[in-house]
Amino acid sequence: MSILDSSEAGASQDRQTCDDLDATLRHYTKDLGYAVDEVFPADAPRIVVISRDGHSIRLEQALTGTTRGNRDTDGASFVRQADTGSWNIGRAGMQYRDLIPDRLGGRVIASHIRIPDGGPVPDYVHYHHVQFQMIYCAKGWVRVVYEDQGPSFVMHAGDCVLQPPMIRHRVLECSDGLEVIEIGSPAEHRTLADRSTGLPTRSIDRDRQFGGQRFVFHESAAADWHAGPAPGFEFRDTGIEEATAGVGSAIVMRASNPGEQLAISGDDGFQFHMLLCGSALLATDQGENWKLSTSDSFAIPPGIRAVLEPDDDALEVLRVALADLPAKAPTVVA
Ligand SMILES: [Fe+2]
User: How far apart are the CA of 286 and the centre of ligand 1, in A?
Assistant: First the structure.
């Protein structure tokens, strides 16, 4: 399916190939008054659809050697991503770091997103065609607003949201040094503007189902810690598993006893781990050993087992599991 086939796209649409998509987009929006209708993909845009007075233009980044598509991999490689300082400029000026470079063949994306300079965020009401999407606030704070969920609210470090499929939302403002972790499936999905919906909506319906999922705002300050998922550890549950009817889950784990190890099997399905703070040692049954620190992340492929051993008292690890990744990512753009 091409985004040109979209029923949301206007009837008349021109196409323009750009050597510098960012600069061209700035010209159309700032100088000529065009508005953004669609961005694809959000983390490293290569197609942006804009319109003004019923006239629509599809801007396409000229192909270069670095243009990334859904690479056809089996996801069997061990994934460990340290913060190497490699950041892309994505939608609405946000900086993105890809945490799963091969994206398991396009089935899942994990992004470390940051906004260094706080203040109003140049976002607009939009929505995503996703099967799963959550955002965890790792540093700073961000004010957001969601369809049918009441007034805008602030996510602080440790808080997270589950964004059900197609829910309209907007990022309003943030602190200096905001950092969030976003996990979504499939990796490349459509992001569409909605200029007919104002937020907040007048109606509030916190039990509303969007594509079989309910919105979740998990506040760490109010969360209870429970023993598990292994002896010597405790965790807080974000409520995402229940709200998505098992499509995905997200917990934050920390050690309650020094010296305990957390066993992780790649045969338990896709599990993404990110160190939110502290450090740890990761050893696989293939003889690989890693010293991990804050903002490092990893996923263990099928057939491999590993143990994670806390290296200090501060360790906190976000674990996001997805139950049924599509066998192969849907092709969104030919
Ligand atoms: Fe969004």
Answer: 38
User: Cα(318)–Cα(297) distance, rounded to whole angstroms?
Assistant: 9
Structure tokens at 124: 């607009």
- Yes or no: say if 187 and 108 are a contact pair by the CB < 8 Å rule: yes
Under 8 Å between Cβ of 97 and 86: yes
CB 63 within 8 A of CB 73: no
How far apart are the CA of 170 and the centre of ligand 1, in A? 7
- Please tell me the distance from the alpha carbon of residue 247 to that of residue 164, in angstroms, as a whole number: 11
CA of 128 to the centre of ligand 1 (A): 6
Strand partners, 88: 96
For 306, the enclosing helix (H) or strand (E) is strand 305-310
> CA 334, CA 332: separation in Å to the nearest integer?
7
CB proximity list for 202: less than 8 A, separation 6 or greater: none
What is the pLDDT at residue 62?
83
For residue 168, the CA-to-ligand 1 centroid distance in Å is 8
Tokens for 8, please give them: 């949301």
Lowest mean pLDDT among 14-28, 63-77, 189-203, 214-228: 63-77
Which burial class, exposed, middle or buried, applies to 228 when counting CB atoms under 10 A from its CB (0-12, 13-18, 19+)? middle
Cβ–Cβ under 8 Å, residues 171 and 123: yes
Mean predicted confidence (pLDDT) in 276-295: 92
Ligand 1 centroid from CA 134, angstroms: 10
The rounded Å distance from CA 101 to ligand 1 centre is 21
3-state secondary structure of 304: coil
What single string gives the DSSP state of each residue in 80-124? EE---S--EE-GGG-EEEESSTTHHHHT-EEEEEEESS-EE----
pLDDT at 30 over 50: yes
